[in-house]
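Now produce a polypeptide, keeping tokens residue-aligned:
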Amino acid sequence: MNKLLLSFIFCFLSVSCAYTQDFLADRYTAGKTFEKPEVLREYDFTSTDSVPIKLSTLETLSTRDKTLHDAQEIQLVVTSDAYYKDRLIVKKGDAVSAKIETVIPSGMNGIPYYIYIGEFKFKNLDSSKLLCHYSKGGVNRMYWVLPLKWALTFLPPTGSLTNFIKGGHARITPKDTITVHYFPNWK
């Protein structure tokens, strides 16, 4: 009897939700025209020739530093010469500017901090020909926190205490190699 009642309630709710969704979609989109999104047609991505450019930061970036924020301008330096078909593309020691795109704080259950760097700007390279995003995370503690959480679940409040364990801080040092790929044949 209970299964029959639950099946009836589930079917009724499913049909009513579907009807409500269709009603709202028709109401808010009626009479509106939508344009197709722009397609990047001028780019020719058939060439896969790329030049890896190795960079490093001038100072240590850490999420422990409270002044670190999104859209912060940072300076990098090229650590080795980059060539394409025996032609020098970027010289060792050249200065490069970039921005910290996002700083993601650590979360519950051991999720670590993350730093994302992007918008690399070279003096003599076209930025539309760069494939450049770099990210680094802190220590991921989820691999031991989540099993601990499930092991303690049989005691109701103790499993929830693992929510307060945070992940590690992210840190980018001048010893870290940041690789940016330059595609000289992209148009």
